[in-house]
Design a protein that fits this description.
With 478 residues, this protein is of the alpha/beta class. The chain has 2 domains: 370 residues, Rossmann fold, CATH 3.40.50.12780; 91 residues, GMP Synthetase, Chain A, domain 3, CATH 3.30.300.30. It contains 13 helices and 24 strands. It has an 8-stranded mixed β-sheet, with helices on both faces. Strand 1 and strand 2 form a beta hairpin. The chain is globular, with a radius of gyration of 23 Å. The protein starts with a helix and ends with a helix. The model has no long low-confidence stretch (mean pLDDT 91).
Length: 478
């Protein structure tokens, strides 16, 4: 088949594709703009199957770039713009990216090529590219783990297609839909919206401040002024919006709030229910191309906390530590299988077998999934995945520190907050301010520990593993 944008331009060229405060672009117009950019990327030497690392915001140029790379058949490697340059270069090296492109006016990497610097020789608004192969790689998205380094999930175009189709079955699609892009494009939850909407022929509303991760007033104003019908939020965003604005002031155009990225407290869900918000709770992960299970608003109201049934074509199964299947009601590891599951991780064996998520949950008697705990040890704060082992490795480099354990503490606004328990060398001292200053030199801001406790020793099991539950208890005592 042709790429998703070409299909939308052929079937509904007059429909709106991208909406900003300054311009509304139809699919026909976007198709021509992307053809021009594709021809320039081609002239620069980017070829099909080339892995291209990209620094994106949520602006118009970013939307055009990802569609242009798709038309070329290049493999997109979106870099988290909140990472340090050292962290980004590690991902570029791991993914074997041949190119680094940036839409940011001040690139975060010296080697990044700005779009304005691409050659214009041979520029054409009729550049067609190659047919889209659903078995071909779409992108490599780095996702957090608990082993100290992120893993590169290799997603295919088939993963994107089936995920978009299954989501449409669950959430519904209206020709008038306008999805507000709130999540960054280095997250699958943000990136997928651009391609899903092209496949549906519906519009994406871009924020006024594309580089700002979350501007409360701008988001609120945009939902009203652009007649937004769908919006993706993490619990932190929803909490702040509900704290600031009255329930009767929410836009009437809004038909669905897709809430995911982190665990939502029952208190927040009940407050949303009392405000009559159209909340769809979702559970997903990068390795499954975003959504795995999603409720509709009615089920969210009736069974707060459940994430509903698996999406179309997806299977969810619960297993114990030995891999044995568990019956309804018993907690175990969530396994997922289906055409949305990634090809595999970089540098590891591939295959579309059962994905062992590491998340703990259970299926109730009606087949609805409840997540008890996201990946064991993983911290999710404000929708960002944070792996403790990386932070612990940095803290242990401090000359006063002998050992460290990083945990997530419950936080009403952020979901979880990073906290560090440390042990010190004899006669050494360290305060929270000094630790924070040290960590700022090595870690992105969202990974920084916000609380610290000093212990004589870290609690461990007989096999030497740190008992994180007992570490968490230490913070309640201090």
């Amino acid at each position: 088949m042709n790429d998703f944008l070409s299909l939308a331009a052929q079937s509904s060229p007059e429909r709106l594709a991208l909406i900003t405060s300054d311009v509304e672009i139809t699919y026909g117009e976007l198709n021509q703009r992307v053809a021009v950019l594709s021809s320039r990327l081609d002239a620069a030497g980017i070829q099909a199957k080339d892995r291209v690392a990209v620094l994106l915001d949520r602006g118009l140029a970013s939307g055009e770039l990802v569609h242009a790379l798709a038309r070329l058949g290049a493999v997109i490697v979106p870099l988290n713009t909140r990472l340090t340059s050292t962290e980004m270069r590690w991902q570029i090296e791991q993914s074997d990216s041949r190119w680094v492109l940036s839409v940011l006016p001040a690139p975060l990497l010296e080697e990044a090529i700005l779009l304005d610097d691409l050659p214009r020789m041979g520029e054409s608004d009729q550049w067609l590219g190659s047919p889209l192969d659903l078995d071909a790689d779409f992108g490599i998205l780095f996702t957090s783990g608990t082993t100290g380094k992120p893993k590169g999930a290799v997603l295919t175009w088939g993963n994107i297609f089936w995920s978009a189709t299954a989501s449409a079955f669950r959430l519904g699609v209206l020709p008038s839909d306008r999805w507000l892009l709130t999540l960054p494009l280095y997250h699958i939850g943000g990136l997928a919206i651009l391609f899903r909407s092209a496949l549906y022929g519906t519009a994406v509303v871009l924020p006024d401040y594309p580089g700002d991760p979350f501007d409360l007033e701008q988001l609120w104003r945009k939902m009203h002024n652009a007649d937004v019908t769908l919006v993706s939020l993490v619990p932190t965003m929803l909490y702040r919006l509900m704290d600031r604005y009255e329930k009767e002031d929410w836009p009437l155009s809004l038909r669905l709030i897709l809430l995911g990225g982190a665990a939502a407290t029952l208190k927040l869900l009940r407050a949303a229910r009392d405000a009559y918000l159209p909340l769809a709770l979702t559970y997903g992960l990068t390795e499954a191309t975003s959504q795995v299970a999603t409720t509709d608003p009615e089920l969210t109201r009736l069974k707060p906390g459940t994430v509903g049934k698996p999406l179309q074509w997806l299977q969810v199964s619960i297993h114990d530590e030995d891999g044995q299947h568990l019956p309804a009601g018993e907690i175990g590891e969530v396994w997922v299988q289906g055409p949305m599951v990634m090809r595999g991780y970089l540098h590891q064996a591939t295959g579309n077998d059962w994905l062992h998520t590491g998340d703990l949950g259970y299926l109730d008697d009606e087949g609805d999934l409840r997540i008890v705990q996201r990946r064991s040890d993983l911290i999710i704060s404000g929708g960002e995945n944070i792996y403790p082992a990386e932070i612990e490795a940095v803290i242990r480099q401090h000359p006063a520190v002998t050992d460290a354990c990083v945990v997530g503490l419950p936080n009403l606004e952020w979901g979880q907050q990073v906290a560090a328990a440390i042990t010190l060398r004899p006669d050494a001292s360290l305060d929270e301010k000094s630790l924070l200053s040290f960590c700022q030199q090595h870690l992105a801001s969202y990974k920084l520990p916000r609380q610290m406790v000093i212990l004589d020793t870290l609690p461990r099991t007989s096999s030497g593993k740190v008992q994180r539950d007992k570490v968490i208890d230490q913070f309640s005592r201090n």
